[in-house]
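Continuing the series of single-chain predictions for the mutant panel. This is the parent chain; the variants come on the following pages.
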Amino acid sequence: RVRLISAALAASSYPQDEQAQQRHGTHAHARATRARVSAFADHPAVQTLQGLLDEDAPLEAIYMFALMLRLPDGRIAKPPSWMPPNWDAQLNDFYAVAGLADWWQSDAAVWQKSLTDSTRVFENAQFKQFLSPFLGEIKREFIFIPNISYPTDQELGFRLRNDLVCIVPPRLAWGDSPPWPYDEDPAHVYRAALTQYGRLLIGAYLRSHAEQVAAAEKPLPVSDPFKAIYPTWAEQFTSLFVAGLVAIYLEDHVNPAEASAYVLMERKLHGLAILPGVINVLRHYLRELETGRYQTLLDLLPNFSRRLKVANRIISL
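Parent structure:
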């Protein structure tokens, strides 16, 4: 189902659009898929998808819709209200006339490699154990789907029933070089997956404790450009909190060099100069949790902004 939407994307304007935003090399399977389906740009399923893209429909919603399709008939029992009429039937027809079953079978080895490589990466992952001191018991299942087709330059994350789904392309290489295999850069895979799972989980956590969160909100020491991207307190806190989680996980479960590289990247790409302070505050929270001073993350929230300001002053000395 993920590959079906990726193939429809390959037949749309999406490949050109993402290259226009950032020139990058793509996986050979993505390029081959685009060549195979290019003749079907006028197919109703692709035209419907193109209309959604032109309206800036989120890719997360489109892929969530795909995972709601029943197999093997490719229909949807309870379509979302935004689904264009008969899109499920159109996609089913596109799957048939484009010969996607035969195509995937002929190129099955590269898909299997992406699955094998990413499975190897997650053999020793400890996400739920790592997240539980911050968010309590994690009851949702984590689903990771490697994607060597489209989109080629961004990961997607969304909740589907009791699952948190993360769809991730391999890490981009320099210029037009092909992307890295999944198992050659575990830190990229961990960063991508933990960012999506963490974002979804903390968002749900803040919503489920809305009254306590509202009472604890104090202006965060973030830059004006950061505020422009994340205008609400919840959005700002989520971005800082998740970045801090990723850095701590990389340091504790990969190596300090990967954590330092991530912190540097976040500082250069997203202006997160205060990320070291966030890490300091979250590590302090873990220590206070062990001593019993804190019971849950809610105990930290009223003091988060003040502690972050203090941590930044100390780190900048």
